[in-house]
Design a protein that fits this description.
By secondary structure, the chain is of the alpha+beta class. It has two domains: about 100 residues, Peroxidase, domain 1, CATH 1.10.520; about 70 residues, no CATH class. Helices cover about 65% and strands about 15% of the residues. A four-stranded mixed β-sheet has the order 2-1-3-4. The mean pLDDT is about 90. This is ATP synthase subunit delta. InterPro entries: ATP_synth_OSCP/delta_N_sf, ATPase_OSCP/d_CS, ATPase_OSCP/dsu. Belongs to the ATPase delta chain family. Keywords: ATP synthesis, Cell membrane, CF(1), Hydrogen ion transport, Ion transport, Membrane, Transport.
């Protein structure tokens, strides 16, 4: 089974349990911390994936280190250790965040521009795309991309909205090519 499918199943189950218990926000906060730990602490990943360290020792470590986390998160981590699937933890966190955002009507997007956008420009883009995507809010992450000659390109999930000059020129070129 692919990593994405496994991660989605765990995230879906955790979201459903947290929703039933009214603890979706608590789990979100725990996942923010957990995500940062797994992104920055390469020694932890190496330890959890090391074949010579026993699963019982790894699970004991998780119980000790993540003592303040909810039972559901700790048990999920222990199951992942037991099944040798700790590499999917960041994907589980990402999918859980997506589920939370969907439930709240929030979309995350990346905007590529030739320079850093001002707060007003970012706010205007967020409002425009919130309406366009029928969401309560859009959270934009600005990426400065020198290959963008002018305008902006916005990526929301798998969709790309290309308002760059080079994108417009390419569309014009295709249209002219069709006319010939």
């Amino acid at each position: 089974m692919s990593e994405a499918v496994v991660a989605n199943r765990y995230a879906d189950a955790l979201f459903q349990i947290a929703n039933e218990q009214g603890k979706t926000e608590q789990l979100m906060e725990e996942f923010d911390v957990l995500g940062e730990i797994f992104r920055t602490n390469h020694e932890l990943n190496a330890f959890l994936e090391h074949p010579r360290v026993s699963n019982s020792r790894k699970k004991q470590f998780i119980g000790d280190v993540f003592n303040d986390f909810s039972v559901n998160v700790k048990n999920t981590l222990k199951i992942l250790v037991e099944r040798h699937r700790t590499e999917v933890i960041p994907s589980i966190i990402d999918h859980y965040i997506k589920l939370m955002n969907d439930a709240k009507g929030i979309a995350e997007a990346t905007v590529y521009s030739v320079r850093e956008l001002s707060d007003d420009e970012r706010e205007q883009l967020e409002k425009t795309f919130a309406k366009r995507l029928n969401k309560q809010m859009v959270k934009l992450q600005n990426v400065v991309d020198p290959s963008v000659l002018g305008g902006v390109k916005v990526r929301v999930g798998n969709s790309i909205y290309d308002g760059t000059i080079s994108g417009k020129l390419q569309r014009l070129e295709r249209n002219i090519g069709i006319a010939n």
